[in-house]
Design goal:
Length: 285
């Protein structure tokens, strides 16, 4: 029987939107052999609004490239008649994307849960992780590869983009209606082991989260290997809604992680004050 254990922590991760996140991470049978199709997507695109008559709406899509298992997060404008203008993307996707620029500059905010005696929210960097987690990930070079500081470091897997392949995970647009739609965000999972939160307007990554169970199971350590064989990480369907909270309207997101019929659940709850974003996490494994 599935018996979850709960570990809670709070941390500070910068973000300009008030959010609450719940990610449902469940290993399931793989639906689609991505190795048989060089490039494409399986998860459906999503619209900022399904009523497109304003002429201001956008469509968002995740993609994969099985030559190096890199991914793309793309956005295109949609006309009032429903025409998708593929010739004029909202921002650069693929190589040179906002995420690639952030990663090369070392300014990504990636969080996870430590495996210390008293678990705590930490940044996914060498100095933030415990010694056990650093070892499970294969050391500093692997950690930096996962963070994307280099696309082709010596001895490790080369890739076109920092973003991992997006196959089954469908992008989910959150309008941030509680804050007058000032900070719309698109959530999407990828097979780089992260749940990503992208700025829906600029394409920059607001933050990303690495489920700690992927670290302890040594799954993440496989990603940088030059002999990497594709696997599935945070790659499933997603749902979203409001979490009841006094004086705030956080967001609830369920994200499915697929692989080999095993089930795990990760719960993220994020509340922001004027200066920081407080991340509360419960890992259930």
């Amino acid at each position: 029987m599935f018996k979850p254990t709960i570990k809670r922590f709070s941390s500070f991760i910068g973000l300009t939107a008030l959010l609450g996140i719940t990610a449902l991470l469940a290993y399931a049978a793989v639906f689609f052999p991505a190795t048989t199709q060089p490039i494409g997507y399986v998860g459906q695109p999503t619209l900022s609004n399904y009523n497109v008559t304003s002429g201001l709406e956008k469509i968002y899509r995740g993609m994969f490239n099985n030559f190096d298992w890199s991914g793309q997060f793309s956005c295109y404008p949609v006309s009032a008649t429903g025409y998708v203008n593929l010739a004029s993307p909202c921002f650069t996707s693929g190589a040179g994307s906002p995420l690639d620029i952030q990663a090369a500059s070392g300014v990504r905010m990636i969080g996870t849960l430590s495996d210390a005696t008293t678990p705590a929210g930490v940044e996914f960097i060498t100095t933030g992780l415990t010694t056990t987690q650093q070892t499970a990930l294969g050391g500093t070079a692997n950690i930096n590869w996962i963070r994307g500081t280099s696309l082709s470091p010596t001895g490790l897997r080369a890739r076109t983009t920092v973003l991992g392949d997006i196959i089954h995970s469908r992008p989910y647009y959150w309008s941030d209606a509680a804050n007058n739609n000032t900070n719309p965000t698109v959530f999407v999972g990828a097979n780089d082991g992260m749940l990503h939160a992208f700025n829906a307007t600029t394409g920059t990554e607001r933050w990303a989260y690495v489920p700690s169970m992927l670290i302890s199971a040594s799954k993440m350590a496989m990603l940088p290997s030059a002999s990497y064989t594709h696997d599935y990480f945070v790659d499933g369907s997603m749902a979203i809604g409001n979490v009841p909270s006094t004086g705030t309207t956080p967001v609830l997101v369920d994200e499915l992680l697929e692989h080999r019929g095993r089930g795990l659940r990760l719960v993220l709850v994020v509340l922001e004050d004027e200066a920081h974003l407080h991340l509360l996490v419960a890992d259930l494994d």
